[in-house]
Amino acid sequence: MIHSLALRVYYEDTDLAGIVYYANYLKFIERARTEWVRSLGVDQGRLKAEEGIVFAVRRVEADYLRPARFDDELVVETRVEAASGARVVLEQVVSRGRERLFQSVVTLVCLTEAGAPARLPAELRRRLAPALH
Asked: Fewest CB within 10 angstroms: 41, 55, 95, 99, which?
């Protein structure tokens, strides 16, 4: 199961050289993760309010392959690589057409509001199961 998010590069996303500033790729993949979680039917605000659980990025491996430029139309694809009791590992790729520009592996962990590790909610594990097979 791959989730896709289309986006466009705006002037504010670029640097002096006219290419996407490297840190903005992290913003792009964050937006895609938020929409991916929403597509699973998970309301992160309600999860925090009702169960006291939040997601946090534990690790990001990022490879910048080619530059994106102002007004490019990009797609961010998010795919689950692995999941365990308290973490989810995702592959996220930013492409322009068939050209891969950026790729990353992101490890998310589930935490209590106090920052202690927490198990992924059972309903979320159930919804992730099809993506793992």
From this structure: 41
